[in-house]
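Our preliminary data section would be incomplete without showing what the modeling component actually yields. Below, a chain of 260 amino acids is followed by its predicted structure, encoded as tokens that our downstream tools consume directly.
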Amino acid sequence: MEVIIQPSPGDCAATGARIIGQLLKGKTEAVLGLATGSTPLPLYRELITMNQRGELDFSTVTSFNLDEYIGLQGDHPCSYRYFMEQELFKDINIEAERTHVPDGLAVDVSDHCRAYEQAIRDCGGIDLQILGLGTDGHIGFNEPGSSLGSRTRIKTLTGKTCEDNARFFESIEEVPRHCITMGVATIMECRQILLFAFGEAKAEIIAKAIEGPVSAMVPASVLQMHPEVKILIDDAAASCLEHADYYKEVFAGKPSWQCF
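Predicted structure:
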């Protein structure tokens, strides 16, 4: 696990975009795992700018999103398919048929989840997965207590998650209580992972995920076991880390061939 502490979310986004840029320049048919919510927005803006400048080409990239609400169709303003179209897809040259988001209206949810897993395998697996972090430690919608061996499946959202996401809806009552999400084991199979977290509200859970024990009660803590994960956080989110100064020292002292 590499912890990268930057002054601001914008700095984290720029660093993350350079890492993704290195991947796409080395593998034109890369498979990206994408996330929604406010956290990845600075990153997506960086990727859009790089694409529009001609620095990145998404025409042969395939994407898989982490999750989707059950009961929302793709054109619903609060669906994650709609989010991705508005915040990234419409502004880059990615082919629509190469973008995958779980179907919130799937008739047979279990069958759809199995098919989603198979689609990822058929593409050769995810090269790089983008993650945010819930205030309770969830990644994707793998809430505390989720099996660390879980696969794509239906999950019931906690009241805290519904409360956190209510800002995207007219009221908390409109937030769906169920979703389809990639499982923890699905995420851990990705070749590289970038997790972003910003602000003091994430500081305590970041400390638990990075420096605490690996536990299903803090699903993000399992990332300590991944061989190629980078945690990109701003100074505020790093404020509870015991070894923050060390992480900064390590990053500043990287050999040139490891820099991005």
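Residues 2-251 form a domain with the Rossmann fold fold (CATH 3.40.50.1360). The longest strand covers residues 192-197. Preliminary results of this kind motivate Aim 1 of the renewal.
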